[in-house]
Amino acid sequence: MVEDGSNTPAPAIPLSLRLVGWITILYGISSILNIIELARHGRFFINLSALQFFGGIGILRRKRGWRLYQLFCLWLGLALLVLAGISIVSGRQLISYGWMGIPLERARPEVLLSLFILLALLTVWEIRVLTRSEVKKLFGISGTR
Fold it and tell me: What is the total count of domains within the chain?
C-alpha cells in the first residue's frame, strides 16, 4: 500500500538507493557511537551527524524531506573533503579532521589524500543516485530538473 492510501503497490526501491540509505544509517550509527564514547570520557559533544541515522531511514521510506537533508549533507561533506584535500596537498593544515574522536592530521599525507579521494567518489555517487530522475519519482518529485 502506498502512503496516499491506495492499494497500488509502491514501486521497488533500486539497489543503489537502498545502499545509499544503509550507508547513511551506518554513518549515523557511527556518529551516535562517537557521542557515547566521548561522553564515557567526560567529553560532551553534539554531533549533528547522528541525524544521518534518521536520514537513512527516511531515504528507505522515501521521505522527500530526508532526501533533501541528505543531499545538503552530501554537498557540504563534498566541500569539506575538497578543503581537506587542498590542505593535504598544500602541506598546511587548513582544517582539522578526525574519525571517532581520533585526530588524523598525523597520518601520512598520501594515505589521507587517498582516503579523501575515495570518500569524495562515494559522495559523488550518492549525490548522483539521489538526483536521478527515477529516484526523484520515488520521492514524489516530478520534472526533469
Answer: 1
**CB-side exposure of 124: number of CA atoms within 13 Å?**
8
Pairing type for strands 102-103 and 98-99 reads antiparallel
Q: Is residue 133 part of a domain?
A: yes
Alpha-carbon span 35 to 77, nearest angstrom: 19
H or E stretch at 29 = helix 15-40
Angle between helices 64-90 and 52-60 (to 10 degrees): 130
CA distance 58 to 42: 32
pTM of the model: 0.82
- 10-36, pLDDT tens digit by residue? 778 999 999 999 999 999 998 898 889
Task: Check if the beta carbon of residue 81 is closer than 8 Å to that of residue 119.
Answer: yes
Residues of the domain holding 98: 15-138
**Cβ(37)–Cβ(100) under 8 Å?**
yes
